[in-house]
C-alpha cells in the first residue's frame, strides 16, 4: 500500500491547491456551508459531499478494490465545481485509482 500513500498525498495536495484557487479574492467574504454529507463506511471506502454559499460543490466516493491482496487499491471518483473570479463556473471530474489521477474538465487541455 506504499503506492497508495503516495497517491493519497498527491490527491490531497491537488485538492488543497484547487480549493485555494477556487477561493474568493475578497477575504471579507465568508462562505457558509449549505450542505454537508459524510458517510465513512470504514476501511472499505467513504462517500462525502458539500456545497457552500459561494458556489463550491464537491462530491467524492471511494471503494477498496482487491482487499487483502497485493493489488489492493482505493478507487476514488469525484467532482468539484467552483465559480472563478471572472464569474465562470468550472467543473473538474476525476478518477484516482491504480492507474493514477485522471482529471477531466472542459477547461483542461485535450490530447
Would you summarize the structure shown here?
The protein is α+β, with helices and mostly antiparallel strands and 111 residues long. 19% of the residues lie in helices and 45% in strands.
Q: Provide the succession of SSEs.
A: HEEEEEE
The largest sheet is:
6 strands, antiparallel
Helix content estimate: 10-25%
Average pLDDT metric: 81
Please work out how many helical segments DSSP would assign: 1
Q: Would you report the number of β strands? A: 6
Alpha-carbon distance between the two ends: 31 Å
Radius of gyration: 16 Å
Which of globular, elongated, flat, extended, rod-shaped describes the shape? flat
Unreliable residue stretches = 1-10
Structural class: alpha+beta
Spatial strand order of the main sheet: 1-2-3-4-5-6
| Percent of residues in beta strands | over 45%
Provide keyphrases for this structure.
single chain, 45% strand, disordered N terminus, alpha+beta
Task: Characterise this structure.
The chain is α+β, with helices and mostly antiparallel strands. It has a 6-stranded antiparallel sheet. The protein is flat, with a radius of gyration of 16 Å. The longest helix is centred in the N-terminal third of the chain and has 21 residues, at 2-22. It has one helix at residues 2-22, and strands spanning 33-40, 45-52, 57-65, 73-83, 89-97, 100-104. The chain starts with a helix and ends in a 7-residue tail after the last strand. It contains 1 helix and 6 strands.
Amino acid at each position: 500500500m506504499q503506492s497508495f500513500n503516495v497517491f493519497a498525498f498527491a490527491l490531497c495536495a491537488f485538492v488543497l491547491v484547487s480549493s485555494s484557487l477556487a477561493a474568493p479574492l475578497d477575504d471579507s467574504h465568508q462562505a457558509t456551508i449549505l450542505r454537508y454529507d459524510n458517510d465513512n463506511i470504514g476501511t472499505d471506502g467513504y462517500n462525502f459531499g458539500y456545497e457552500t454559499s459561494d458556489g463550491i460543490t464537491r462530491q467524492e466516493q471511494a471503494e477498496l478494490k482487491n482487499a487483502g491482496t497485493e493489488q489492493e487499491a482505493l478507487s476514488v471518483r469525484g467532482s468539484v465545481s467552483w465559480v472563478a473570479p471572472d464569474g465562470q463556473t468550472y467543473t473538474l471530474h476525476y478518477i484516482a485509482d491504480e492507474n493514477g489521477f485522471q482529471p477531466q474538465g472542459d477547461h483542461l487541455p485535450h490530447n
